[in-house]
Amino acid sequence: MTDILLEHIMTNYRWVFVIFFLLPLSFIFEIFNYGRNWIVFNLSTAPRQHRKKVKEVQKQVRKWKESGEQQLMCTARPSWQTMSFRQGTYKSSMFNININLVDVLEVNVENKYVQVEPLVTMGQLSATLDRLGWTIPVTPELDDLTVGGLVMGTGIESSSHKFGLFQHICRAFEIVLCDGSVVKCSKENDSDLFYAIPWSHGTLGFLVSVEIDIISAQKFIELEYQPVTSLTEAVDVFKRQTFAKENNQFVEGLMFSKEKGVIMTGNMVSKVEEDLVNPIGRWYKPWFFTHVEKKLREGSRIEYIPLRDYYHRHTRSLFWELQDIIPFGNNFIFRYLFGWLMPPKVSLLKLTQTKAIKKLYENNHVLQDMLVPIDHLKESILKFHEVVQVYPLWLCPFKLTPDPGFVHSRTNKQDMYVDVGVYGTPKVKNFNPVKVTREIEDFVHSVKGYQMLYADTYRTKEEFEAMFDHTLYKKMREKLQCKNAFPDVYGKVNKSVRT
User: Fold this and answer.
1) Which member of 161, 180, 309, 462 lies 3.0 to 4.6 Å from 281 by CB, making a disulfide possible if both were Cys?
2) Domain assignment present for 310
3) Each residue of 56-104: pLDDT tens digit?
4) How many other C-beta atoms are found inside a 10 Å radius of the C-beta of residue 466?
5) What is the structure's pLDDT at 14?
6) Is 117 inside any structural domain?
């Protein structure tokens, strides 16, 4: 009886648990991490400890070899600690390697790169670099996204039409291979391994550090909001701003219906009009997507937003996912009283999900990012409207180059793509998650696009290998003798295989 009552409360009144338990716990965790990271960075202890931590990873891998290589390996990090909403049980049947690599190691201003360990988060990295006057060229929006996840999976930001995906701003990878050795690879040194690592999901080795390009930063983003009132206008404006000769540093679109949306363009500036400064990251401010939606009524506007506020503009509401968990979370009274605690950690939300919530979420929710050529943007929006009708839709342009990796342009030249992000509850009748996801995947493949792999995929192995270029990946798997050491990518991301 107690279990049934608890299940009922957790399913129908989850917001009570989130507000009075998860929010305070998330805040305490955040304060602890901030203080700990500040001390470690300013005392410069991380570089000295890094080699010890890498040797510990090597020691565990050698122990796996000595045990007879009876199991495949993976990191010991529990699935609930990741930002992905994907669930899986494969870790329980594998040899777990503990990897406690959470620090910024070096900010090299002279050579313009930052070296970090893989569990460094975007919030941690942007806070470190911002006070030094630097930034990385592509800073994915959510605070808790990790460098390792963005390398082994992928990452994107509204500056990606200039700089590409997160992998394209990475200069070098340090990785522990399945024989226990450590190698460092770059475009100039072991380029095959360098290009094979992105999207490999830890199936070639254990990432232990990354060197990332940095560029000088200014204090504010001058952000222009341009409302659009038809799909044709939205696509035309989005393309024009993406390819603009004046070279917008940031381009992003939010579609609030099939016909209405707001296209945003931004540039870093140091001088501002004080009455137009809007620190959108403060706890009492409206959630960013609701702020943008108001521009549909207000017309074209310009604001000046502090750089870190802009980078993490979708963090407080987890894009718009929190409106389903805390329906009144954007109410001004709630924001003033509890906004400083937001958002709850995704990891804690996952950890405290009941079976009923998981089932409800899997059967009545869409969480997908589909990467399509920009020339197919209009038909992509129409397709998503047809099969799910989830709004807002997130639009983010990015360039792909013809490198030999898992994901690259389909031509011999640089191509422009768009990430169409779909997060929310479908408004169509008789929604079937497997059938609809399959239909979306088939459409994306037909236009020579890609699917981000943090979410569920239902491709067969043959279909999966037709969407993603496995040529270099398979070559490196064989060269590094990974078959008996790690599952392949398909085995980690496909729902029917990983569970």
Assistant:
1) 309
2) yes
3) 999 999 999 999 989 999 998 887 667 666 665 677 789 999 999 999 9
4) 12
5) 78
6) no
What integer pLDDT is reported at residue 343 of this predicted model? 92
Burial of residue 429, with CB atoms counted within 10 A of its CB: 0-12 exposed, 13-18 middle, 19 or more buried: exposed
State pLDDT tens for residues 145-200.
999 999 999 999 999 999 999 999 999 999 999 999 999 999 999 999 999 999 99
Measure the CA–CA gap between 381 and 372, rounded to whole angstroms.
10
Q: How confident is the model at residue 273 (pLDDT cuts 50, 70, 90)?
A: very high
Domain containing 230: what range?
A: 220-316
The answer for residues whose C-beta is within 8 angstroms of residue 84's C-beta and 6 or more apart is 149, 153, 454, 455
Model pLDDT, residue 358: 79
Are 417 and 398 a contacting pair, CB within 8 Å?
yes
β-strands 261-269, 206-213 pairing: unpaired
Dihedral over Cα of 145, 149, 153, 157: its sign: positive
CATH number of the domain residue 306 falls in:
3.30.70
DSSP, res 19: I
Alpha helices in 365-470 (DSSP H): 377-387, 433-446, 461-467
The answer to whether the beta carbons of residues 447 and 380 sit under 8 Å apart is yes
Say what the pLDDT of residue 356 is: 77
Q: How far is CA 232 from CA 88, 167, 241, 379, in A?
A: 40, 32, 14, 11
State the pLDDT at residue 234: 98
Identify the H or E element spanning 215: strand 215-216
First to last CA, the chain: 30
In-domain check, residue 227: yes
